């Protein structure tokens, strides 16, 4: 589906210069002279490159529809991750760097969504929030108020996040995978 360059929005997947790109940020600019344009920051979903491109309203780009399929994470094999199709039970190996910063949050048996383009997986989407255990938390400094200050803590997957002062080692919490931030105590 073709769209105008000024109709591009964050999260869109577009075809540009023979590659598949995910739009990260946009900025609409209307200079004093000349026509308006859209400054678009995007990331190549095949090789991870990032670029900034200007699109004018006369420019058209192809908006790509990706298929999503439910998979289950089985195990890690070197630097490859093994996933199983929930319908056909077929297994697929993908490089672990496909997950980027969310990689430490992948857990055995976790349900994930794979985005496929022309039957090839190009991204893995984890659940937005997961449950994790605090294995190390700094002691509370006297005089800190619960409303304004957070303290560093380490999760069972090795990721460092900031938590409220009342959270102690051994506590199970809910973590936002993509923001890498504390959401609340696990019930």
TrEMBL record:
Q: What is its main location?
A: cytoplasm
A molecular function (GO) held by this record is: translation elongation factor activity
Alphabetized SMART domains for the sequence: EFP, Elong-fact-P_C
Where the record annotates domain Translation elongation factor P/YeiP central, the positions are 68-122
Q: Which Pfam families match?
A: EFP (PF01132), EFP_N (PF08207), Elong-fact-P_C (PF09285)
Would the keyword Chaperone turn up in this protein's UniProt record?
no
**Localisation:** Cytoplasm
Which keywords has UniProt assigned to this entry?
Cytoplasm, Elongation factor, Protein biosynthesis
Q: Where is the Elongation factor P C-terminal domain?
A: 130-185
Specify the pathway.
Answer: Protein biosynthesis; polypeptide chain elongation
Family per record: Belongs to the elongation factor P family.
Q: What does the UniProt record say this protein does?
A: Involved in peptide bond synthesis. Stimulates efficient translation and peptide-bond synthesis on native or reconstituted 70S ribosomes in vitro. Probably functions indirectly by altering the affinity of the ribosome for aminoacyl-tRNA, thus increasing their reactivity as acceptors for peptidyl transferase.
Protein's UniProt name: Elongation factor P
Q: Which organism is it from?
A: Qipengyuania pacifica
Taxonomy, top ranks, is: Bacteria, Pseudomonadati, Pseudomonadota, Alphaproteobacteria, Sphingomonadales
